[in-house]
Amino acid sequence: MATTSIVVVGAGVLGLSTALVLSKHKGLDITVVAKHMPGDFDIEYASPWAGANFFPVGAPGSDLQKFEKATWGELDRICREVPEAGIHFQETKTYGRKKDAGTAVGQWFQELVKEDAWFKDVVPNFRVLPKSELPPDAETGTTFTSVCMNVSVYLPWILGQCVKNGVTIRRGILSHISEAGSYHSSGKADITLNCTGLLASKLGGVMDASVYPGRGQIVVVRNEPGVMVTVSGTDDGDEEATYIMQRAVGGGTVLGGCLQHGSWESQPDPNLAQRIMQRSIDLCPSLVPKTGKVTELSIIRHGVGLRPMRKGGPRVEKEKIDGNWIVHNYGHAGYGYQSGWGSAWEAEKLVLEILKQESVVKAKL
Fold first, then answer.
1. What is the CATH number of domain 4-357?
2. Which of 65, 110, 179, 318 could serve as 58's disulfide partner, Cβ 3.0–4.6 Å?
């Protein structure tokens, strides 16, 4: 049986999820090539810095909403059936403040904090919070069951599943997307999957000017509040956010954050870190039940990640570059984990369309 050479460029959550989905098809010989791999911590590599959870933010009718909706079922299944993947269910509370409308964070969380959110029939245990359960400055609130991942476990788990299915994993730095085939054992790529995230803005042949960094800063602590909480904005600045998410299997609790459009700054801002910790305690006192003070937080690390933002949302489409088929799957901002499986299945669909199209062409020849 003839095999098709596939190269997936990028080993973040999108690249690995896409490779795993494709690896379930016979006749595909898949190689993943990436500059950064699970276990690396680099400012260019967003996936290790993520929360990561299911906080749906896609607008109704958007591709992102479609990908998020499709992804929930798989996250739910993995959480129930694959404990070693490092996902657990988590009670979630979201609070909305009218004064945050129009701010960077308010726009980011616009769908998430709605009382009539589109995902109310997707996630379990969704209910609107009564006024008595809201913080003093919040007008709206909801609660539902979500999931949170320990990315230090989840990413290597996906990688391991790829290897189990025969995917080849290689390190490499590409200056142009056409170089992908040189990393395949056959020396060519019949189809290349471009899952390069933020680096899609710099990769030759792609050079997507609509991709830019959305800087996020977090503090990871050992304290366990037992709940995920977020609010639509803060009084500390339009780009500053408050979210708390407790990762599975000892991954610590992530305190965030910010959404700083266009910033490539890789180093944590100590003043912002202090504000993040104080806001988190104010919103979720169960973080520090003994003293109620920042000093009670047991800090594991400070971190900065650059979300691969894209004007117009995620790009999942096929095109020919220099005569070679490319399937793009990037631009998921801070939503890669919560939209990854839906996006991978969309990329899979495009690959199968190409294979069908090429087989028709060959048959005519």
1. 3.30.9.10
2. 65
Distance, CA of 81 to CA of 89 (rounded, Å): 12
Widest CA span of the chain, in angstroms? 77
According to DSSP, residue 130 is labeled P
Distance between CA atoms of residues 72 and 62, nearest Å: 16
Q: Tokens 């906080």 belong to which residue?
A: 55
Report the sign of the C-alpha dihedral through residues 286, 290, 296, 300, in that order.
negative
Q: What is the bridge-based pairing of β-strands 240-246 and 228-231?
A: antiparallel
Strand partners, 318: 327
Structural domain spans, the chain: 4-357
Q: What is the pLDDT of residues 302-325, one digit of tens each?
A: 999 999 999 999 999 999 999 999
Cα–Cα distance between 116 and 122 in angstroms, integer? Answer: 12
- List residues forming the annotated binding site: 196, 243, 334
Cβ atoms within 10 Å, residue 42: 14
Q: In the numeric block, which tokens belong to residue 23?
A: 């690896």
Question: pLDDT (tens digit, 9 = 90+) per residue, 24-79?
Answer: 999 999 999 999 999 999 999 999 999 999 999 999 999 999 999 999 999 999 99
Binding site, annotated residues for D-dopa = 243, 334
∠ CA 181-182-183 to the nearest 5 degrees? 90
Span between the terminal Cα atoms of the chain, in Å: 19
| Token output for 255 | 């305190």
CA distance 39 to 34: 13
Which residues are annotated binding-site positions for FAD?
196
- Tokens of residue 279, six digits: 């806001």
Q: Is the backbone of residue 321 left (phi > 0), alpha (psi -120 to 50) or beta? A: beta
